[in-house]
Design brief:
Blueprint: E1 2-7, H1 11-15, H2 18-27, E2 32-37, H3 42-47, E3 53-56, E4 83-87, H4 94-101, E5 106-110, H5 122-130, H6 149-153, E6 159-162, H7 174-186, E7 191-195, H8 200-208, E8 224-227, H9 231-238, E9 244-247, H10 250-257, E10 262-266, H11 271-274, E11 281-285, H12 294-305
Parallel strand pairs: 1-2, 1-4, 2-3, 4-5, 6-7, 6-9, 7-8, 9-10, 10-11
Helix pairs in contact: 7-8, 7-12
């Protein structure tokens, strides 16, 4: 059984599809799965062992899916596919028509997230779209950490903290993260601060205090940092941490799937739909960010590492 799965989206969108891919592997005997998605996540998806091949969704070959009249041979990459699953918007049915015209007999298309106002978790929603039975097993990405140089040299930390997210509204205030880091460092906790390309401004505010409303990390409490690292390297470092703290973000979903005890902060997004999936997840949710206090967060972190 050769299965093509197309799942565009951010890091978290991709990671939350992995439990459903695992269920598909259980359902079909020895499937060969090709996953098409966000290039940033593909090395991790491949290392997970849940798929046999990966491809960048931005690759020009996939643009033919959205062409009203694809050029002859444009869909040469899919004729051997038995089942295509496309978690994307296809209101005119163009993607499905092009896949069937290329020889794919079974095609499932569905939007990548549940309808507005439908409070079903994204994993359950995706499973419903393909008729997958989730069972009781969980995906663990520990095997994706491998045993390479990044894992061998990564030190051990008490807590990893990622203060960013895909949108500013989903981020707990920088000043609050800075206060948590200072309090943890005062208790001799080993803190690792994580950041990607979209987090530079927030981390700079924490380090230098340029934003007066943000406050700065005390020099004596400056944590170790891992910035702009490939996702597989981030995963290897996370595997060396006893706890993780972050917003509703892709890195938070990664920590949870790695089995790291995860504290996820939610306000703008609905945890009923987007909460991380893993064996040890604590969700702290409030309608307003100020209702999630530094004291409560520090207490939660310490409960995992003390």
């Amino acid at each position: 059984m050769r299965i093509l799965i197309i799942r565009p989206g951010a890091i978290g969108d991709t990671l939350l599809a992995l439990p459903v891919i695992r269920a598909l592997r259980v359902h079909y005997a020895n499937p060969h799965i090709t996953f098409v998605g966000n290039a940033v996540v593909l090395p991790l998806v491949l290392a997970s062992g849940l798929v046999e091949e990966v491809s960048d969704y931005e690759d020009i070959r996939w643009s033919a899916l959205f062409a009203a009249a694809p050029l002859p041979g444009a869909m040469h990459c899919v004729p051997t596919i038995d089942l295509a699953i496309c978690w994307l918007r296809d209101p005119d049915g163009m993607v499905e028509r092009n896949l069937r015209a290329a020889g794919v007999q079974q095609v499932i298309t569905a939007p990548g997230r549940p309808p507005e106002g439908e409070r079903v978790h994204i994993v359950d929603y995706l499973a419903q779209t393909v008729g997958a039975h989730m069972g009781k097993g969980q995906v663990s990405l520990r095997t994706a950490c491998g045993s390479g140089r990044g894992r061998a040299t990564a030190p051990t930390y008490d807590v990893a903290i990622h203060p960013g997210s895909g949108g500013a509204r989903k981020c707990w205030p920088v000043s609050s993260f800075a206060a948590v880091i200072q309090r943890l460092c005062e208790r001799d906790c080993r803190v690792l601060l994580l950041g990607g390309p979209a987090d530079h401004e927030r981390i700079d505010a924490m380090r230098r205090g340029r934003d007066k409303s943000a406050g700065a990390i005390n020099r004596a409490s400056t944590p170790a940092m891992l910035l702009d690292a490939p996702l597989l390297e981030v995963a290897r470092y996370l595997c060396q941490c006893r706890c993780y703290l972050g917003n509703d973000s892709g890195i938070t979903h990664l920590a949870a799937l790695l089995g790291v005890p995860t504290i996820a902060l939610f306000s703008a997004s609905d945890p009923a739909v987007w909460h991380p999936v893993g064996p040890s997840v604590t969700v702290m949710h409030a309608p307003r960010w100020e209702e999630i206090t530094v004291e409560r967060v520090v207490e939660n972190v310490l409960s995992h590492i003390m």
